[in-house]
Amino acid sequence: MLEIHKKILVDENQQPVAVQIPFDEFQRIEQIMENFGLAKLMDETEHDERLSGDAAREYYELLKANDVEG
After folding, report:
1. How far apart are CA 58 and CA 31, in angstroms?
2. pLDDT of residue 1
3. What Rg, from alpha-carbon coordinates, does the chain have?
4. Could you tell me the pTM of the whole model?
5. Does some domain include residue 33?
6. Tens digit of pLDDT for each residue in 28-48?
7. What pLDDT does residue 45 have?
8. Is residue 1 part of a domain?
């Protein structure tokens, strides 16, 4: 289990408003979240149609072109 060294920041009424953690721990949390998201996406698309390498590259280029226009 990942140990998180957190500092809880409170307002003038002693109500929690933010959490401060070391940057390296934040990076590990971020990596865990990205891995979880990728695994979830892989599970969700397990039965989707698979593209050949050339078709995948063409589709990717189309997505990039649409992103630039949009």
Report:
1. 29
2. 80
3. 20
4. 0.55
5. yes
6. 999 999 999 888 888 888 788
7. 82
8. no
User: Does some domain include residue 63?
Assistant: yes
**Which tokens hold the place of 46?**
């397990």
What are the phi and psi torsion angles at 37 (to 5°)? -65, -40
Q: How many other C-beta atoms can be found within 10 angstroms of the C-beta atom of residue 25?
A: 14
As a whole number of angstroms, the distance between CA 60 and CA 68 comes to: 13
| Domain containing residue 56 | 7-69
**Of 29, 32, 13, whose CA–CA distance to 21 is shortest?**
29
Give the residue from 26, 18, 20, 19 showing the smallest Cα distance to 2. Answer: 26
Distance separating alpha carbons of residues 31 and 41, to the nearest angstrom:
15
